[in-house]
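#lab-general

N.A. 3:47 PM
ok so I finally got the sequence cleaned up, no stray characters, all 440 residues accounted for. can someone with queue access submit it? mine expired

B.Y. 3:52 PM
send it over

N.A. 3:53 PM
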Amino acid sequence: MNARVHPPVHSANHAPSYYAASANRQLQYPPLGGEVKVDVCVVGGGFSGLNTAIELAERGLSVALLEAHQIGWGASGRNGGQLIRGVGHGVEQFEPIIGQDGVRELKLMGLEAVELVRRRVAKYNIDCDLTWGYCDLANKPAHFAGFQEDMAELQSLGYQHELRLVQPDRMHEVVGSSRYCGGMIDMGSGHLHPLNLALGEAAAAQALGVQLFEHSAVTRIDYGPQVKVHTAGGHVLASTLVLGCNAYLNNLNPSLGGKVLPAGSYVIATEPLGEERARALIPQNMALCDQRVALDYYRLSADNRLLFGGACHYSGRDPADIAAYMRPKMLEVFPELADVRIDYQWGGMIGIGANRLPQIGKLKDQPNVFYAQAYSGHGVNATHLAGKLLGEAIALRESRGFELFAQVPHMTFPGGRYFRSPLLALGMGWYRLKEAVGLV
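B.Y. 4:20 PM
back already:
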């Protein structure tokens, strides 16, 4: 099976994003037909599945990967492209479960996760516009005080990359907006073209012998010592199964699906601004993110567009016009862009867990079924970490990192499939109200 490489064209199967329009390769893989026997079947053609497949193939296991749509079709090919350290929010909460040393290891893995992306891009020579430099933006003085604590903690963990605080009167050196009151620069985080990264990793996986199948939605799973994974056109027999569908798991496994909430996130891309105007907005070409509950994140593309994202929706309903919804948010930060055309608008689902820690483990009643999901906005790096840990746990049958993640319990969202999103939307609305009146 060989992928065919075509000139960059827009694919109707991907979201109508800037990334799809600027993909530097178009890989086409066949749908599954007949029977395939492998050591491991991976379901999901995003970063989780691709990196798990690479890790396993590098260790000599045979792998088949099934993707319902196209490689990178979900959040992996639609996200904001921000590669930021960390894998969770407030990991100290897990100290009663994994201990103080375990919490420290989680934090160190949050730093390692970015390095995994760095090494994968270098090893397989993946052209994905990887650019280093990121800045956390303070919306209020309390955020800036928190950055000082973050910086001290990172230094205590032996963080190897440059960190520096940006005082309020120097913020113009980072962002051309008067909206913020300080920042923290991290030169070990950055930004990239996520779809090109996914496509490059798919090519790497295929070169390692992984069999990739697109347009192969899983219709049924027969569990047991040998797993049988069915699609409309065939089935895969495997000793081990990995579910890496995240927010797009749907009802494939209701137990796992109840622990991850699909939440909509949206991005717009302006017309090319030209070098001078683009650098007036973001002088050092960094990725930027603020600290609000409904956060803004933005960066420049390689051709000097502003990519502006955020507005996480828990209601399950997308805006009728994403550009009309997102443009006012962009203009609050950069009012000088009022005359700028929006060339692309798109959205997608990210997976949110109740405790904001990625869910990496295996099913209690099916010990040969592994999973990774619920990255809660840190998916670009955390997926690569998940792939490494799953690869170790499956191929080597031991992984300290995997065991740490697997120990943490994860709550099933109340309300069932149809009511959990509205219930959480109400809760998040209350939290945003508290933020607006200064209670958080």
